[in-house]
From TrEMBL:
<dbReference type="InterPro" id="IPR011105">
    <property type="entry name" value="Cell_wall_hydrolase_SleB"/>
</dbReference>
<dbReference type="Pfam" id="PF07486">
    <property type="entry name" value="Hydrolase_2"/>
</dbReference>
<dbReference type="GO" id="GO:0016787">
    <property type="term" value="F:hydrolase activity"/>
</dbReference>
<protein>
    <submittedName>
        <fullName>Cell wall hydrolase</fullName>
    </submittedName>
</protein>
<feature type="domain" description="Cell wall hydrolase SleB">
    <location>
        <begin position="112"/>
        <end position="221"/>
    </location>
</feature>
<dbReference type="InterPro" id="IPR042047">
    <property type="entry name" value="SleB_dom1"/>
</dbReference>
<keyword id="KW-0378">Hydrolase</keyword>
């Protein structure tokens, strides 16, 4: 079949797919028309794509569709510095549930760490949100396992102690880190880490997961 005939066939298949109408002299026999097979393959590919997208979940798709492009977020300063002085110069942020949950996690779980270490913990939480093995929201990740003995992913949610803020400045800095990370700051510290632990403990999974880095008193790992 010549190039012109192939083009005509493709046009006919498109017309049938879109409009559902084709004249009798345009329709070829199914046995000899490669367009029929092509249309079948396209239908199969679209079906697979739809199935894959459904598995990703609506939350992840929305985040992927709204990823900030470089330079598109004026509220995220360029040249982020991992220092208290840098954070203190930023305006006090406000946010929704994701910001509140991330701020609380950084304060109660990592305020004793360096600023760099707190950014790293925020990376782990957001890296988990992006993976299918974990809940697809910040609050879901932070509160995963809460209420089940030995199942808490973040210990402060299960230690029984009241979640009371005694260090307002540390809490404000945690909120600024949360706002920066949710705003699109590059996650370049932990190389995609999904887990961490303090150097004082040795969890069972540490020997199975590749360690990506160590920051302060925390080792960071990437779940295969």
């Amino acid at each position: 079949m010549g190039i012109r005939r192939l083009v005509q066939t493709a046009f006919i298949v498109a017309a049938v797919s879109v409009g559902g109408v084709a004249t009798a002299d345009e329709v070829l026999s199914e046995a000899n028309d490669p367009g029929i097979a092509l249309n079948g393959r396209l239908t199969d590919l679209l079906t697979r794509e739809r199935t894959a997208l459904e598995r990703i979940g609506v939350g992840r798709l929305e985040r992927l569709a709204n990823l900030p492009t470089r330079g598109a977020r004026p509220d995220v300063p360029e040249g982020v510095e991992f220092s208290a002085a840098f954070l203190d110069a930023l305006p006090t942020p406000k946010g929704g549930d994701a910001w509140s949950c991330l701020t609380e996690a950084l304060y109660f779980e990592a305020r004793g760490e360096s600023i760099r270490g707190q950014f790293a913990v925020a990376e782990v939480i957001l890296n988990r949100v992006d993976r299918a093995e974990f809940p697809n929201s910040v609050c879901g990740v932070v509160k995963q396992g809460t209420g089940r003995k030995y199942q808490c992913q973040f210990s402060y949610t299960c230690d029984g102690a009241p979640e009371t803020v005694h260090e307002p400045l540390s809490f404000e800095r945690a909120g600024k880190i949360a706002a920066l990370m949710l705003g699109g700051v590059d996650r370049r510290l932990t190389r995609g880490a999904t887990h961490y632990h303090t150097v004082a403990v040795d969890p069972y999974w540490a020997s199975r997961f590749p360690r990506t880095t160590t920051i302060g008193v925390h080792h960071f790992y990437h779940m295969p």
